[in-house]
Amino acid sequence: MADLATTAPLIRATGLRKSFGPTEALRGIDLDIDRGEVVAVMGPSGSGKSTLIHCLAGVLTPDAGDVTINGTELGRLDADARARLRLKEIGFVFQFGQLLPDLTAVDNVALPLLMGGASRRAARAESYAWLERLGLGDQGDKFPGQMSGGQAQRVAIARALATRPTVLFADEPTGSLDSVAAESVLETMLDVVREARTTVLLITHDPRTAAYADREVIVRDGRLSGSALVGRS
Q: Does the entry feature the keyword Protein biosynthesis, yes or no (predicted)?
């Protein structure tokens, strides 16, 4: 018999509903995401895709429904336990990187490792290894303002992956880059996560970015309106 831990969806959402005042952002979403899958989440502005991602990551608590990540039901956790789960299981990459400007690249990447209890020496060694893996071995001592946009975004990706998360949430990770830098950053990120079998949820409005995913789900008016395999051959 197959191991249930490897055959069950890594992320399972059932009946998710979330309102902000009178506005229903999510209207009963069911979604399964498999281990190692790269899923592009698309939809127009205000469709609910960001609210969905925040509920899946445990940043927001849904008004109804359940989210399970790697066998843990988020609704059973208090705020501190959800924060610990995010630190251990989840990585985040945002459109503008959100690196700390007063820290070098290596110290930005080391930060979540230090928060997880690693020694400074171990955290910096791991940080340098991730920078090297993402083609930034010579950028460790530079500050974000001294790097190009593409380089800074690779640092943000290294920081998100340094803790070896089970799932990576990437919110428009190349939205602030030109097309050449965006393609380079995406290809580098996906090469690394696919090698590590990291599950990725990629929020994007760009069909060219979504084409890098294994599957695309579309959110409209708080509901899933479609799902299709879209990966490149």
A: no
Q: What residues form DSSP beta bridges with 229?
A: 215
pLDDT tens track for 164-219: 999 999 888 877 778 888 888 888 888 888 888 899 999 988 888 899 899 999 99
Instruction: Please tell me the pTM assigned to this model.
Output: 0.84
Who contacts 86 (Cβ-Cβ below 8 Å, separation ≥6)? Answer: 57, 58, 59
Under 8 Å between Cβ of 214 and 203: no
**Would you state the torsion angle of the CA atoms of residues 66, 55, 156, 10, taken in this order, to the nearest 10 degrees?**
20
Q: 120-168: per-residue pLDDT in tens?
A: 999 999 999 999 988 888 999 999 999 988 889 889 989 999 999 999 9
User: 53, 169 in Cβ contact below 8 A?
Assistant: yes
- Distance of alpha carbon 222 from alpha carbon 24, whole angstroms: 7
Q: What domains sit in the chain, N to C, each tagged with a CATH number?
A: 4-229 (3.40.50.300)
